[in-house]
Amino acid sequence: MLNVALPKGRLGEKVYAMFEAAGYECPSIKENNRKLIFENEERGVRYFWVKPSDVAIYVERGAADIGVAGKDILLEYAPDVYELLDLNLGKCRMAVAAPNEFHDDEQKTLKVATKFTNIAANYYASLGREIDIIKLNGSIEIAPILKLSDVIVDIVETGTTLKENNLEVKSEIVPISARLIANKSSFKFKGDDIEKIVESIKKQVQAND
Amino acid sequence: MIDNSILRNEEKAIFALRELYGKYGYKPFKMSKFEEYEFYIQNKDFLVSDRIIAFNDTNGKLLALKPDVTLSIIKNGEDIDGFKQKVCYNENVYRVSENTHQFKEIMQTGVECIGDINLYDIYEMIVMAAESLSLISDDFVLEISHLGLLSSLLDNICKNSSFKNEAIKYISDKNAHDLARICDENDVAENDKNALQKFVSIYGERNNVLQELETLDEYVNKDNMNILKTLSYMLDNLSCSGKIKFDFSAVSDMNYYNGIVFKGYINGLSQSVLTGGQYDNLLYKMGRKSGAIGFAIYLDLLEDLPNEKAGYDVDVLLLCDDKTENAVLINTVNDIINNGKTVSVQTADTGKIRYKELKNIKGGV
């Protein structure tokens, strides 16, 4: 039985469609109820919906053999998993944004507000820049407006939210998209099944490009 | 005589593994619980984490609880021509858990061979690693990589050290897509990029891997390739040969390891339980002339293996009260034990003890 952790929400539904097209369907998942675990014994697959930021933990700890997680989560928490495929879904970028008129005074410590403290710390360490990280859990965009921070490090999809708050992207850190990940131990013992899924989904991704 | 069935998985493993290592002439090495703190600070590059539990001894000297065993073994050895120090150990180490970020006691068993290491020594170590895993479970995989081969392949493609470090990370993650991205960002030639992509996809059955590697012969160091070929041939005769595979994603810390490295997995456990390899770099840094190879098994992970005895705590729950005569109670307990069963004497069935059979001698005379 292959255990698959899917991120709850629209991304998860798109990902399930890819698994279904790969021959790992589980019709009960489409029933309108509040169940979180769905199994198709015949196909040897069990899906479960989890919070997107928790997928990597389920996979790293072996509760799920494979799963789909955003690259932002993989970079932030650095789970010890295989990253087998870029699904090219949920594409966006991790970027530094600041008020349009912002000028970086390099003589001062840069105040950075973010949910992604490790990504921000690693990025500025690579530039050798001294920063003060302010960990926030949401509404990051208002931090520089209220002078809580000089800049923010956050996910930018279309840039509309930034624009509406008079912010703009100052530099891009890394492109983000959904990735298919696998538990390292599961890959040793269920490798054939996992590779079959990866190959089929890879073809779908290439066809969509 | 100890009844094996009462032992936990990790306790059974300790006995079986020590017996195994003894067969190959590895002597148990008992070390002190503490080391001087300064010693770890000098060698912190070789530690998994630089966070160490330190405390003052009664004479004011700063000591540390061991975060690592190998360093202590090397410190105490000497280089003698023609002699290989072969030791095994079973020790607790104290490290910060990556999950809880708090200190954790980890039970480790391992072996080290220090001296003029040759191909037989590498073979012997891999055989012992495979036999160790098979003592824990039949369903295991031992994967072998060669860091020298990986390093020379990357040097042939791009000398930039930050590219190399990133590429190693992506190879260890089997992440071909980000590997392609950094190749593009670093203007790596298309042929070289394709070779790297191919390299990530090569793993599994040893002969297949060797055949696939032949197609990358302009990138792969011949000496390292020959070591893998000879080693694979030597391993062919083992009964568990099919469970020993080549996988270049088994990348261990290159500060510490060089040459052959390996990792062992057991079906049902979510992470590798065995890690090892050649660590000549560490000895060189410590001023030793010898080479070295060894491995460690993380016994605390074996807790997660299913235990045959799960489901109940004792065979018989024996209930008695103040009116039960002591002689009756003692005789009943002895009868149960003499019949090869386990018993817990209680005054009530509170639901805290899981049992197969309930025996009530309350008021018994």
Task: Tell me what you see in this structure.
The complex is a heterodimer of chains A (209) and B (365). With 209 residues, chain A is an alpha/beta fold. Chain A is 33% helix and 32% strand. Chain A has helices spanning 10-21, 55-60, 71-77, 117-127, 142-145, 160-164, 184-189, 191-208; strands spanning 2-7, 37-40, 45-50, 66-70, 81-86, 92-99, 110-114, 131-135, 151-156, 167-176, 178-183. The model of chain A has no long low-confidence stretch (mean pLDDT 92). In chain B, a hairpin with a 7-residue loop joins strand 10 (258-266) and strand 11 (274-278). Chain B folds into 2 domains: 4-304, Bira Bifunctional Protein, Domain 2 (BirA Bifunctional Protein, domain 2); 314-360, no CATH class. Chain B is elongated and about 90 Å long.
Question: Can you tag this structure with a few keywords?
Answer:
heterodimer, A: 209 residues, alpha/beta, six-stranded mixed β-sheet, 8 helices, 33% helix, B: 365 residues, BirA Bifunctional Protein, domain 2, nine-stranded mixed β-sheet, 12 helices, 36% helix
**Beta-strand content bin of chain B:** 15-25%
- What percent of the residues of chain B sit in helical stretches (DSSP H or I)? 25-40%
| H-E string of chain B | HEEHEEHEEHEHHHHEHHEEEHEEHEE
The order of strands across the largest sheet of chain A is: 2-3-1-4-11-5
Topology:
The complex is a heterodimer of chains A (209) and B (365).
Chain A lengths: L1 E6 L2 H12 L15 E4 L4 E6 L4 H6 L5 E5 H7 L3 E6 L5 E8 L10 E5 L2 H11 L3 E5 L6 H4 L5 E6 L3 H5 L2 E10 L1 E6 H6 L1 H18 L1
Parallel strand pairs in A: 1-3, 1-4, 7-8, 7-9
Antiparallel strand pairs in A: 2-3, 4-11, 5-11, 6-9, 6-10
Chain B lengths: L8 H15 L3 E2 L5 E3 H6 L11 E3 L5 E4 L4 H7 L8 E12 L6 E13 L3 H18 L3 E7 H11 L3 H12 L3 H10 L4 H11 L2 E2 L1 H9 L7 H14 L8 E4 L10 E9 L7 E5 L1 H6 L5 E8 L15 E6 L6 H13 L4 E4 L8 E6 L5
Parallel strand pairs in B: 1-5, 7-9, 13-14, 13-15
Antiparallel strand pairs in B: 2-4, 3-4, 5-6, 6-12, 7-10, 8-9, 10-11, 11-12
Helix pairs in contact in B: 1-4, 4-10, 6-7, 7-8, 9-10
